[in-house]
Design brief:
Layout lengths: L7 H4 L26 H7 L2 H19 L7 H22 L6 H22 L24 E4 L2 E4 L4 E5 L7 E7 L5 E5 L2 E11 L5 E9 L3 E9 L2 E8 L2 E8 L12 E10 L2 E4 L2 H6 L1
Parallel strand pairs: 1-8
Antiparallel strand pairs: 1-2, 3-4, 4-6, 5-6, 6-7, 7-8, 9-10, 10-11, 11-12
């Protein structure tokens, strides 16, 4: 959403609003129980896009529903412009992405940034909580300085990265690092507070392997290999479900082809390991 210019008169009409009051708000015209359009099905079938849609909806609702002292013209003008801008964004930007998850992800992130900027700059709204979902309480976990179990070996990350020679005496380095964006996720799995994040690992060869990783408050983590040269889109903890979204390839496509196929996989944390759920179990969660 483009900034609406100076709105001092409208801003004076609004009281300071806490974003946490709208933490559970859902998009008014996106009902994932009965999505009608192809673009709606794409969003509803992807956990990361659903989360971005809910976040954008939260900011929009705050701007739309903040109550002025009087329904005067500056407020009505602001509200009308907000609604018109939303319709234009949905038609010209969101819907133009079609089924391209990476395009939708970028469109939503830009939309959220624009809405957040308008809320903070023009309406004096104070952000006091996470915009889409409450962050679970628990100890802080330093996921960038932790020990991860990768392919049977412990890899210690310092400031989000670890390097070592690919072989004894070799000049090439094996490099493991935290991948952000997409942002890490916080929650509980197996009754333990955890941070979920993507890791990447590359060395002297042409491959870059990506892992879904969990790290706990004891500073140790475990991983599950997602694939080679994929494009991470999102990672989330929903209840006892670890949800990983990314772009991959068709089974017959070579690695030289850029990843464009949206994929979503679901995992559980059991017996100290990340375990992939079968498709039927994922659908029921």
């Amino acid at each position: 959403m483009k900034k609406m210019g100076p709105c001092a008169a409208a801003a004076a009409l609004f009281s300071c609003v806490s974003i946490s009051a709208f933490a559970q708000t859902q998009t008014a015209d996106l009902d994932c129980t009965k999505p009608h359009l192809a673009i709606e099905r794409t969003i509803c079938n992807n956990a990361a896009l659903r989360a971005l849609d809910a976040q954008a909806s939260t900011y929009y609702t705050i701007l739309l529903e903040a109550k002025p002292t009087a329904q005067n013209k500056p407020y009505q003008d602001f509200r009308d412009a907000l609604q018109a801008d939303r319709q234009k964004w949905q038609h010209d930007t969101r819907d133009a992405c079609g089924a391209q998850v990476s395009c939708l992800s970028e469109a939503y992130r830009q939309r959220i940034d624009d809405l957040r900027g308008n809320a903070l700059e023009h309406l004096g709204i104070t952000v006091t909580a996470a915009p889409a979902h409450e962050v679970p309480s628990g100890p802080s976990i330093d996921y960038k300085n932790a020990i991860y179990r990768i392919e049977g070996k412990d890899v210690t990350l310092l400031e989000g990265q670890h390097s070592q020679p690919a072989a004894e005496g070799a000049a090439e380095q094996d490099v493991t690092r935290v991948v952000e964006p997409p942002a890490h996720a916080v929650g509980k799995l197996g009754g333990r507070s955890a941070v979920a994040v993507f890791l990447s690992q590359e060395g002297g060869g042409s491959g870059t392997f990506y892992y879904a990783a969990l790290v706990f408050n004891d500073g140790r983590g475990t991983t599950f290999q997602i694939g080679d040269r994929i494009q991470p889109i999102g990672i989330a903890i929903n209840g006892d479900d670890l949800v990983v979204s990314y772009l991959g390839r068709k089974a017959d496509e070579p690695m030289a082809v850029p990843p464009t196929v949206p994929k979503e996989r679901h995992f559980a944390y059991m017996n100290g390991q990340i375990v992939e759920r079968p498709p039927a179990a994922s659908a029921s969660n």
